Amino acid sequence: MCYLGMDPNIQCVTLWRDPVYCEKFPGRQELLEYATSKGIQVTATKKHSYSEDENMMHISYESGELEDPSFPGHAHEYPGLVLKKKSVDIEDCPDTPANLTIGFEKGTPAFVRNEDDGTVIEDPLELFQYLNKIGGEHGVGRIDIVENRFVGMKSRGCYETPAGTILYSAKLDLELLTMDREVMRIRDQLSMKYAELVYNGYWYPLS
To answer: Is the pTM of this model over 0.85?
Structure first.
C-alpha cells in the first residue's frame, strides 16, 4: 500500500500469491532448509521457527509456534529471547526503580536526566538509545497481542519497545497536565484514526 502511494505505476511482486513459489516453499521449514543449503544465516530455526523483526524502535516475534494463542513462550525466553534483545524478564529486573526526568519542548522529548547518577542526555538518538537500555534493564515495554491485519487475518505478535513505551507514557502524563479535556477527547479520536491509516500503509498518501 505504501509503495503504491508513492508511485501507482509500481508493480508489486507478492511471493505468497505466486503459485510456483508456494509450491516450492509451502512453509517456513522449507524456507529454512533452503537458507541452510545456500549458507544464508537467519535467526529462525526448525525448533523455534518464529520470525524476528528488529529496528531501533522495537523487536517483534511472529509466526511459527507463536500462532498458537495458548503457547506461552519458552521457559527461559520471552518467546525466542535467548539473547534478551531489548529487555529482561520481570524476575531479573533490579529491586529498585530508575528515577528519570524527561523534558519536552513543544511536545518533543528534549532531554532525559537520570536522577540517580546525574546522567543527562539531549541528543535525540542517544536519548532514545539510552531509554531503550535502561527501560530494557527494568523489563519495560513487553506486550503479547493478537493483531487484526488489514487483509482480514489475525496474527499474534510479541513485542519489546522499551524507549517507545517510556516516552509514550511520559507524553500522556504531560498532556494530562496541559490539555483541555475536550482537546484530549479529539486527540483520542484522531490518534486512533491516524494509527489505523499508518498501520494499513497509508502514511505516504497522508503526506
So the answer is: no
